Amino acid sequence: MNDSSQQFSTPWQDFLAGLQATLPLAPSVAPFGMLFGTLALTAGMTPWMAQVMSIVVFAGSSQFLAVQLMAGGAPGIIIFLTTLVVNLRHVLYGMSLSTYFKKFPTPTKALLAYLMTDEAYAITISRLRQAEQGVPLAHPGWYNFGSGLTLNLIWQISTAIGILFGALIPDSWSLDFAVPLTFIALVVPSLTGKAEVAAALCAGLAGVLLAGMPLKLGIIAAAIIGILAGVIVEQRTRPAQLPGSPTSERE
Amino acid sequence: MDATSMWLIILGMGVITYLLRFGSLQLASRWTLSSFQQTVLRFVPVAVLSAIVAIELFVPGGQLQVSPLSNPRIIAAALAIGVCLKTRKILPTIAVGMVSLWILQAIL
Lengths: 251, 108
What we know:
A: 12 helices
């Protein structure tokens, strides 16, 4: 239980914490948003279509794919199928966070679901794991909201800039490297045991081997392999212990 | 492709994506997860992020590049991992990784 002499952080403070944790990603996300804005116009979309797509879909890789497919004259059903497959990994994110967000009212979950992305998920789950190890987080919903909203605004603004001004960022800056670096910074501290290391290594290796799979299916397949590896090693090394993961009593 | 079709596709994509995100987030409210299922979920972030990182590092742009000489990102990432193991902080990890990459790109 919480120490009564500790002050709980306020929702606003947790919101700001989520925001601050996410801002370092701006320089790596923004160029993609700008690129999308530019590509969408090249493919024949109007400025409003491009911006609305960023608002309504808010999923970069599927947006890029859709725009290219549209330019190539693909039928809508194909574009829907590729969207479904490319964005399937968000199901893993929702499932993973659903235990932590279980008691939130439905409108709250509806909003947080809209804002869910790779980055918002990674940052939030990392902070939640820290909370399990002793650095409590009083308002995980507000933290997730701060992270997701920040990402969303970055995406909308950079899309708008791309629409208005075209691609201006030199490729040589390699700013996109900040994204895997951030994920590294989040994954490494969570490697607390053999099972986690096994999961990471197997998923990484499988990811590289399966990278040729179309529509980013390789990521899901590799993740499943990594999860299996983690569970197997876990059951061998800690068979009698219940996992230290959230129970239904957790708030 | 005409404008109406494009608008319909945009809307359809939005609905599909949102259902994936919202449906899965509702999961725990509908079903109580067994301890085994919770164990499985615990490995989701490690597995997914490791897969994404590995692909972005070793298969940039769809091309397999595992040689540190032709792919300076591998060395930069290794240095970043080292910094992360020591400091456990996000900003130094990113900073060391980016600076290492710029230096290596200038040298190689």
